[in-house]
Automatic annotation (TrEMBL), chain A:
This is Nitrous-oxide reductase, NosY component. The lineage of its organism: Bacteria, Pseudomonadati, Pseudomonadota, Gammaproteobacteria, Pseudomonadales. The chain crosses the membrane at residues 20-41, 53-75, 112-131, 143-164, 176-199, 251-271. The keyword Transmembrane applies. GO terms for molecular function: ABC-type transporter activity. It comes from Marinobacter manganoxydans MnI7-9.
From TrEMBL, chain B:
This is ABC transporter related protein. InterPro entries: AAA+_ATPase, ABC_transporter-like_ATP-bd, ABC_transporter-like_CS, ABC_Transporter_VariousFunc, P-loop_NTPase. Gene3D superfamilies: P-loop containing nucleotide triphosphate hydrolases. PROSITE patterns: ABC_TRANSPORTER_1, ABC_TRANSPORTER_2. It comes from Marinobacter manganoxydans MnI7-9. One of its GO terms (molecular function) is ATP hydrolysis activity. It comes from the Bacteria.
């Protein structure tokens, strides 16, 4: 446990040193405040629209930004140490490969969690203080849910980045594959699902189809933040499939947890069997 | 308890053998030189002892335990070839990080940095370090936590002559304190005075192992005498001809001196005869050096097939 924390602590202090933590927090806060203030712009006025609409917009932007930041933060976790020449040295220390990777995960995971809590937390407090007549209780609940799911989504993509990082031997390849993962989950997946829907002309099993959304962590994340308000009318595009999903919010939370636990377990397994 | 004991160890990378049937031990308080051409298997040997990989055959025991166990690696210091560090951290931060990983006291960090001559540079980021300074930091890293087994791969690369001498003095102190040390180097004349035993690897097999005297006996290479005649060269030549009945004696003349290659077991007889004759004014004896022995065992097969990867 001690050595896991030593590794994590270095990652944390690295992200403080290279201003990553500060930059991400700033981006999150700006984004949240921007959306809160100009959320009603579509209906012709400037001001706070409503908590559900704000969260829905934040979640829609979050699915682009969170995976990208997580992948960028973590893609070189192992391959970077290898190229830097420190991996071999680290492994001669009383430190197992699993401990090294878990330490990295703790460090990167805490960095992202801190940035999310600071960035969106500040925005949430600002909304609560500055907007008149906002229901504090429902805003707090929605913000907590949003921050929690954002952290889980980020961890999922950190774990996916590790799967790449322990497999490849060059940093540029890892970066390319990380971008490919982002592209697939954020842009391609929903298109493919939509295509399948249209092409199958209703032949596809209606019970099975909604479950396909669970195969994409970004869809689970969006569903979670929108469905929670009990307003399925907000669901657009392929997400409307989610209205038929027979699992509640708990199921979606479990889905997000699995989406970081399984890739992390996979990365650990791949790393352990890898030849140095 | 031996520092490490390799018994009949073989290792294959994919299908091609890297090491075959290696038997090698290191006792505490001993400096072992590990030599071989590029790709001979030195680095693989070290990786097996460090527990980074497991042998396909044979057994590796290190400090009385299993290679790679945390209780074992805690007592091993290792300096890899071409050591690299995190460029954005300072020397002190890096050493603190590694000390924490090793469970070593952080108080020894400044002392170690002073000891390797980085006292003034410990607050600077290592991207500003020269090759020699990185090497020193690597050494300090290897010395964390008073290791009982120290493995150094090309430790003197990038070090100036004074720093090299300091390093060897330090290694002697550690050896006298009971640390077992493995030294991999291509600078054979440099390490020769400091090693207790040498092991020579070629193509993944152990060609020879032992102290220098034993290796000399095993190699059975001639000793070279250089003689300055007291009166005339021919008189001295005559004495030598008579003294050595056996063949294999070569006499060369260069700048008024005689060079005689003699088999080790005939050396004393020849010396006695020459001394008794009174025909010699001066003489010097040249024993085969570590480099001569190394070339003998490696064979002068040339560079062509020695280019394999490590």
């Amino acid at each position: 446990m001690n050595s896991i924390w030593t590794i994590a602590r270095k990652e944390l202090s690295d992200s403080l040193r290279n201003r990553w933590l500060m930059a991400i927090s700033l981006v999150f806060a700006t984004l949240a405040l921007g959306i809160a203030w100009f959320g009603a712009a579509a209906s012709g006025q400037v001001g706070y629209a409503s908590t559900p609409a704000t969260i829905a917009s934040l979640a829609s932007l979050g699915i682009f930004l969170i995976p990208l930041i997580a992948l960028l933060l973590a893609y070189d976790a192992i391959v970077g140490e290898e190229e830097g020449g420190t991996l071999l040295l680290l492994l001669t220390y009383p430190l197992s490969r699993s401990q090294l990777l878990l330490g990295k995960f703790l460090g990167h995971g805490l960095t992202l969690a801190l940035a999310t809590v600071i960035g969106f937390g500040v925005a949430g407090v600002a909304i609560a203080v500055l907007v008149e007549n906002v229901a504090i209780a429902s805003l707090a609940a929605a913000m907590l849910r949003f921050i929690g799911s954002t952290v889980l989504l980020g961890w999922g993509f950190i774990a996916l980045a590790y799967v790449i990082s322990v497999r490849v031997s060059e940093k540029p390849i890892a970066a390319g594959l990380a971008l490919a993962i982002w592209f697939f989950f954020v842009l391609i997946f929903d298109l493919m699902l939509l295509g399948t829907l249209v092409a199958s002309e209703g032949q596809f099993s209606a019970e099975l189809l909604p479950w396909l959304l669970m195969l994409n962590p970004t869809d689970v994340y969006r569903l979670l933040n929108i469905v929670a308000f009990g307003d399925t009318a907000q669901l657009s595009g392929v997400l409307s499939l989610g209205a038929d999903l027979p699992i509640g919010a708990t199921g979606l939370w479990i889905g997000l947890v699995l989406w970081f636990a399984i890739p992390l377990a996979g990365a650990l397994l791949l790393f352990r069997n890898r030849r140095i | 308890m031996s520092c490490f004991r390799l018994e009949n160890v073989s290792y294959r990378y994919d299908k091609s053998p890297v090491l075959t049937g290696i038997d090698l031990t290191l006792e505490p308080g001993e400096i072992l030189g590990l030599f071989g051409h590029n790709g001979a298997g030195k680095t693989t040997c070290i990786k097996l002892i460090l527990g980074l990989m497991n042998p396909n055959q044979g057994s590796v025991s290190v400090l009385g335990g299993h290679a790679g166990d945390p209780q074992v690696t805690q007592h091993i210091g290792y300096l890899p070839e071409n050591v690299m560090f995190y460029p954005q951290l300072t020397g002190r931060e890096i050493l603190n990080h590694f000390a924490r990983l090793k469970g070593a006291s952080l108080q020894q960090v400044p002392q170690l940095l002073e000891q390797v001559g980085l006292g003034d540079a410990m607050g600077a980021r290592t991207k500003t370090y020269s090759k020699g300074m990185r090497q020193r930091l690597g050494l300090a890293q290897a010395l964390l936590g008073k290791p009982r087994l120290l493995m150094l791969d090309e430790p003197t690369v990038g070090l100036d002559p004074v720093a090299t001498a300091d390093l060897y003095r330090l290694l002697r102190e550690l050896r006298d304190g009971g640390t077992g040390i493995v030294l991999c180097s291509h600078v054979l004349p440099g390490v020769e005075p400091y090693i207790d035993r040498a092991a020579i690897l070629t193509d993944g097999a152990l060609k020879a192992a032992g102290d220098l005297a034993a290796l000399r006996r095993q190699a059975n290479m001639p000793v070279t005498l250089s003689l300055e005649p007291a009166n005339s060269i021919s008189a001295l030549e005559h004495v030598i001809d008579r003294a050595s009945s056996s063949s294999g004696l070569i006499i060369k003349t260069d700048s008024g001196r005689l060079r005689v290659d003699v088999q080790p077991r005939e050396k004393m007889a020849l010396l006695n005869a020459v001394m008794a004759s009174g025909e010699v004014a001066d003489l010097s004896i040249h024993q085969p050096s570590l480099e001569d022995i190394y070339v003998h065992f490696i064979g002068s097969g040339g560079l062509a097939h020695r280019g394999g990867s490590q």
